[in-house]
Amino acid sequence: MENKVLEEMLNELLELKHIITSDKQSDNRSLDNLNSYVKLRSLDISKLQNQLTSIGLSSLGRAQSCVLNSLNQDIVILSKLLHKEYTDTNSAITFDEAKSIMIENSKIFGRVNDNFLTKVMVTLPSEAKESPELISNLIANGTSVFRINTAHDDAATWNTMARYIKDENLKQNRNVKIYVDLAGPKNRTGSIKRVFNPFKIGSWRDPKLVKLLSNKKQDVYTAKGDPSTLVVTEEFYELCKQNSKLKIDDFERERVQTYDIIKQDDQLFINANKKITIFEDTTLSIDNKVIKNISKLYNLYHQPIELRVFCEDKVIITDHDIIGQNDFYYDGEKYAAVIGTTNKEIFKFIAPGDEIFIDDGKIGLTILKINDIGVVCKVFLAKENGTVIKEEKGINFPNTDLDISAITQTDERNFEDIVDFADIIGLSFAQTANDIKKLQNMLEAKGKTSVAIAPKIETKTALENLPDILKQLLKWENYAIMIARGDLAIEVGFDNLPYIQDEIFGICEAAHVPVIYATQILEGKMKNNLPTRAEVTDAANAQRADCVMLNKGPFVVDTVIAIKNILRNIHKLHQKNRQLFSVCETWKAKN
């Protein structure tokens, strides 16, 4: 290649270095590298990158963790090709130094080695409070972090889960961490009108045993809406132990049916050899010469009605205490549905023309107008046969600037309950550096400066402010970033998500900040024990992260084993964003 071209490339690199080092260096090398990366990404250097690649030099495309060092290496080599000397390389953080920092920072997820192996986080279900065995099995199969979500359950449940984790750490000689999500101002759909659906028990041809439970028993909660179990008062249950028969009102036949009480292994059952329909006011009775007692039923599940909406339907989203219902009339006009919200604060920010998405983008609406009880919307996105609005589903406002603090009053109360056992606190809906600073101040006041902070990046505003969020994090001792892909996909558009998440990986590596990769990882495996091919490929992409978060489901242990296997294989080929050329065993070279 002509010296003139090499001279031009060298001059361009020197100018590039001048631009990214124009600010005064700090005493935080990660912060300096972040600033260099942000400046680098403000320029279009794609032509220069192609030229560098053509002569075998670093294209800077993998320079995130040590920007200035990568520039220096190219400058030194080009200088030597042109018989020049260049020695101004002392201030740059090297690849090995950056790697050491990132390894140290990733210790918030548990024990690490020098291979950047991605850790696995599991979201604990409510049932974990009653199942230390589940926590034990998950730890034994490679879970490194447990997530407790304060949007669900209560302080007693969270503390019980934390105690089980710490007990298992001692038993298994592990160092599994506890990540706690503060729910933030997440807006969700409100309650929906409920109705009871009568159900049948019993059969003449094929009698079934129906279990009896006392309403004082803990396992009564697992019997919610279960037709194979009937829950009665404690007094009635004790009387059933002393009697052989009970009666149930049969409203359809206008008579009383008598059933045998069966005792098996200290449990009580009804021999349901007669068919009967259980209604909301059905009662059970014991009526003989000695005893007369009546009990209502306690596990009669009232299901939410179906709020199914179609494209072009008009719906009201209300900030009033109105129960969700269909065929709602207001001010002389009929609406397909009305649904409440959990966060009333957002209504002062929204305006006609704004778009709203419900349930991870399954339903899309446009605001037509604002009236006295909320906002009138038209549905523009729904399935052809309609989509059901459900309770407690997320509501997103992707083109609305919601100037809301990430830490609510509820979060402040929950913080008091979890701060003593949390190793990492997830900050939902974090949008600015001030959100991070507020949590830092709360932790400092408690003397908990070693607790890691993990803002969840899930809005456009958070993306725009990401450099400042990272700079604020770097003032703390331990930290991470979570790519919360569910809400983020709605905010930026599903087709933009792959590009956006790669950008987040890049800037976090520049700041040496660990990344948690979250939302719908191996969801098919988790729910049905059968992942799709696309899910497996998506899970493999998690190797770029320091930790991958799994949600909850019936096949959680199997899913942990599966993702550990996927990551183990991918880590043979990749280390974060660098491909490793180890011996290829996929095909054989031929002589």
Report on the architecture of this protein:
The chain has 591 residues and is α/β, with parallel strands linked by helices. It is 32% helix and 25% strand. Strands 1-2-3-24-25-26-27-28 form an eight-stranded parallel β-barrel, surrounded by seven helices. It has a seven-stranded mixed sheet with strand order 7-6-10-9-8-12-13, covered by helices on one side. Strands 17-18-16-21-20-19-23 form a seven-stranded mixed sheet. Strand 8 (245-250) and strand 9 form a beta hairpin. The two termini are 33 Å apart. The model is unreliable at 579-584 and 586-591 (pLDDT under 50).
Highlighted features:
alpha/beta, 8-stranded parallel barrel, 32% helix, 25% strand, 7-stranded mixed beta sheet, TIM Barrel, 4 domains, elongated, 591 residues, 30 strands
Brief description of this entry?
This protein is an alpha/beta fold. It has an eight-stranded parallel beta barrel, surrounded by seven helices. A seven-stranded mixed beta sheet has the order 7-6-10-9-8-12-13, covered by helices on one side. A seven-stranded mixed beta sheet has the order 17-18-16-21-20-19-23.
The mean pLDDT is 90
Give the low-confidence spans: 579-584, 586-591
**Which second-level CATH architecture of the largest domain applies?**
Alpha-Beta Barrel
CATH top level class name of the largest domain: Alpha Beta
Q: How far apart, in Å, are the first and last alpha carbons?
A: 33 Å
- Report the sheet-strand fraction: 15-25%
Oligomer: single chain
Q: How many helical elements?
A: 17
CATH superfamily of the largest domain: Phosphoenolpyruvate-binding domains
Specify the structural class: alpha/beta
Which fold does the CATH topology of the largest domain refer to?
Answer: TIM Barrel
Order of strands across the main sheet: 1-2-3-24-25-26-27-28
Got a strand count? 30
**Molecular shape:** elongated
Radius of gyration: 30 Å
